Structures are given as C-alpha cells and as structure tokens.
Amino acid sequence: MVLEWGKKFSVRSKAMKASAIRELLKLVDNPEIISLAGGMPDPTLFPKKVLAEISRDIFLNHGNKALQYGATEGIPALREALVNIGIEEGIQNLAKENLIVTTASQQGLDLAGKVFIDPGDAIIVEAPSYVGGLQAFRAYEADFITVPLDNDGIKTDILEGKLREAKENGVNVKFMYLIPNFQNPSGVTLSFERRKKILELSHQYDVPIIEDDPYGEIRFEGEKIPSLVEMDNIGNVIALRTFSKILAPGLRLGWMIADKEAINKFVIAKQGSDLCSPSSTQYIAYEFIRQGHLQQYLELVRQTYKKKKDLMLQAIEKYFPKEAEWTKPEGGMFIWVTLPDYVDTTEMFKEAIEEKVAYVIGSAFYPRGEDKHHMRLNFSLPTPEQIDEGIKRLGILLKKKIH
Questions:
Q1: C-alpha to C-alpha distance for 248 and 242, rounded to whole angstroms
Q2: Which of 4, 198, 249, 401 pairs with 255 at a CA distance of 20 to 30 A?
Q3: pLDDT category, 10, cuts 50, 70, 90?
Q4: In which residue ranges of the chain is CATH 3.40.640.10 found?
Q5: Which residues pair with residue 178 across a beta bridge?
Q6: What is the rounded CA–CA span in Å between residue 187 and residue 333?
Q7: What pLDDT is attached to residue 48?
Q8: Which residues contact 156 (CB under 8 A, 6 or more apart)?
Q9: Is the pLDDT of residue 116 over 90?
Q10: How far apart are CA 257 and CA 57, in angstroms?
Q11: What is the CATH topology of the domain spanning 10-46+296-401?
Q12: CATH for 49-290, options being 3.40.640.10, 3.30.2290.10, 3.30.365.10, 3.10.180.10
C-alpha cells in the first residue's frame, strides 16, 4: 500500500507556500539569461583570501572549539564583538544578554513567528514587503494587515488608522514588521520623522516592532538615519541583522537584539530548531571583525554597488518607456519599477524569459498577491554589461506592452 503523504501533513504545513523568488530563480538557471532577479551580493567582492587565511588558522589551531557544538546564544567572543558594534551604533543599554546569534536573519524571522504568532493573530507589514518575511509568518498562520509605502517609507497616517481600527475591533496585533533601510523590494528608506512616529505608535498601542535591517551598512549616498532600535528607549524593538549582505551569505550567520525576556524565549525556540548556529563560521566572522577587515570590505561593497546602481538608473532612463516610474535608492540592492495598471508583470515574465532576461514579479511581495504591475530589479549581482543589456531587453518588451 502506497502511503498518502498528503493525509499526514499538518494543517499548518498546508498553509506554507514556496518562495516565489526561489521558484523563479529555478527558471533563470541558464547562463544565456541575464538575471536581474536575485538578491545576492556580488561574489567577485568576497574577501576570499582573507577568509581562507582566517579559516586555516581557526581549524588548525582552534579546531577543537570551532568544530564542536556551541552555546545556543552564540559563541561569547562573537556576541561581545556584536555588542560593541551595536554600542558604537548608539543602541542604549546593550549587553550580551540582549543578543542571540542566529543562522542568518531568516532564522530570526522564523523564531519571531514561532514565539509570537498564534493562528489568526494579526501582524502589520509594509506593502510591498520581503518575501522571506511573509513566508516565515504565513507558516505560523498569521493574518496580514498591509500598509502602503511611498518614497519616505511606510505611510504612518494609514498605519495609525490600521492600529486604531484593530484595537476597536479587538484584533490581536502581535507586531509590526518593517525594513527601514533600502527596503526589499522597493529600495526606499524610512524617514527620521516617520521613525519617530512609528515608535510613538508602538508605545501607544503596545505593539512591538521587528526591525529587519540587512542593508543598513550598504549606504552609499545621503546621511545615515538612526535605526529604530537605536531610537527606542523603552525596549519595544526587536532588531534583526545579518552577515549575508555585509560579508557573505554562505556563512549563514545573523543576530537578534531585543529585551532580555524576548531573547530568553528566542533561545528556547532556537534550541528546538538547530541547537546552535555553526561554531566554525562564528569563529571566522569574529576573527574577520577582530582583525579589522569588516569596514574595509564594506567600503569596497559600497563603492561597487553605487556604480552599478548608477548604471542601472542610467539604463532605465535610456531604455524604459516614459510611462514607467522607478525608485532611486541611496543604498542596498534593489530598484522598484511601477508600470501602468494594465501591465501584468506576472504574465509578462514568461515573455521576458524568452527574451533572455529575468526580474522578480511584484505580486510576490504582497501577502495576497494583490499587486500585478510592479517588478523588482537587482543591481548588486549582474555585471555592468549585463545591467545595460538586461535593461535594454526589458525596455524593448515594455514598449510593446505599454500603449
């Protein structure tokens, strides 16, 4: 008798959906296709030689610890280094007890969902929002309340109305999920005034904030804006950070900063997930920071990505139809393109693949897939030549669609 696996799956698992981006990337695994779709760093910049030297020393001289299980919270040396980075940033009253090392920030999103969300609980997300966040929270059967963005980030007047409405209707809002810097997918940055307002609303309505900030250190223009966790003086913000964008995603390391009570609960939840993040990559990341390589590497990343961003904006200006609109990010990896309502980027994707160019469909970034006329473009991974040719191919296709 053949086992019917579908009858064994949990109700929760049936709510899970594959990442739209991951599924799309399977289609573009072809060297002939110019992919402007992924959110990956430029691998030619990875500090491979330095990391090789660090790794060799760690495995030969400290292998007994680096290859062993570690504390769930993370190895003490790395946590101390990350605390020092946070203090330099301006985070108040930060200590090791406020920090846990995670298996990249995606695990942080999963832990937040596991710890906070009961089926039917509401969470507030930006519209559009990060696919991985939506996927993590959907797995715990959250209801999504969406708030639109403009060039200054989430619209706080609408946010306030949604919080008020939820309270009046007895809706249990567990947290707000925000990506304040060079947001994925839109590339916009939350203004200082709106950050202040969001913190006021968080305190007023007793709703925590999850600040997901993978891109904050990749600012190549404009003035740095204090992070929400830096501005918060009550402890309502849970901050997620990652080495994936500031060093290498293959290390699979990130960290969470939060109130000690929340961290303790994340530790217990993490023990049920993976016991601990890899000791080996934690030691590598610690030594990379200790030896002073991080800022030098980040400067190279900023310079390179700025050039690529400028090239992409110039190409869009040159090749795209006048009816298209797009964001102009001051950092990060993404440009968000808005097209007339009648242009369905989901339907157009197959045609783009035929033209040997790929992007990410806008509907992937909405919890109910309600948006059809946007696309996300990535400038960090493709070469300058691929950027120009890829945008040219998209421009030709768009001009056929727009009338």
A1: 9
A2: 198
A3: confident
A4: 49-290
A5: 211
A6: 7
A7: 98
A8: 194, 197, 198, 201
A9: yes
A10: 30
A11: Aspartate Aminotransferase, domain 1 (3.90.1150)
A12: 3.40.640.10
